[in-house]
Fold this sequence. Notes:
With 255 residues, the chain is of the alpha/beta class. The chain has helices at residues 16-27, 42-51, 67-81, 104-132, 154-173, 195-198, 201-209, 219-230, and strands at 7-10, 31-36, 58-61, 86-89, 136-141, 179-186, 241-244.
Amino acid sequence: MRLKDKVALVTGANSGIGKAIAERFAAEGAHVAVNYRERANNAEVAGQIVKSFPTEGMTVAGDVSKRDDVERMVAQVVAKFGRLDIAVSNAGLEIKKPFLEVTDDDWNKVLSVNLYGSFVVAQAAARQIVKQGPGGKLIFISSVHEDIPFPEYASYCASKGGLRMLMRNLAIELAPYQICCNNIAPGAIATPINQSVLNDPEAMKNALGEIPLGRFGRPEEVASVAVFLASDEADYVTGSTYYIDGGLTQQVTKY
Ligand code: BGC
């Protein structure tokens, strides 16, 4: 068990990559707080995820783009488990739109969850970790698009590019507290965010043509790297981005 008795908060953990990370952390012995945003049947889904854990976990409702929500979530985790060791900032969204049509509302929605949300989660978690004493892990779920462009996703790319620099800065600023900060940059992973591509054979063909390993990744394949980064084995790893993309970012021009 690589995370025995650690306490972790995973945002956006009711589906996709966040869910896989929460489940894997619990399987590795961690107490995991599963964050979800209150809407539709998210609370029920989050509750079922926690019930399936072999360890004691909890659900925490809240919108990461609201500071009060995030601070309350961290306080709830500490009230129940007495500490926080690992925060995974995973909640995110993307809006596809040609740049000339992007509205302020689109832009602000994406930036407020993906970038501002990550800032607040990292800050609230780090303040708690600093209070406890040395050691802790901040993991940001970024994207290959923290580095490579994605036409019609300007706001998403800007948020992930910002996340790259946020993480690198925090790696330095939080190093005196032995808090390690790293990004995981997934490529095309089979999750709800990619459902429209997964359902469209033509789009799938184009997408697979850009992935050297020739397939979409699985959420569990992202979770396995998250376990490493959250574990004591990664105590000397900080300031890096880990690409989990089947080689997507190494693609060469083929003509
Ligand atoms: C995006 C997906 C996209 C993938 C690879 C991810 O960050 O969320 O929509 O398929 O990057 O381009």
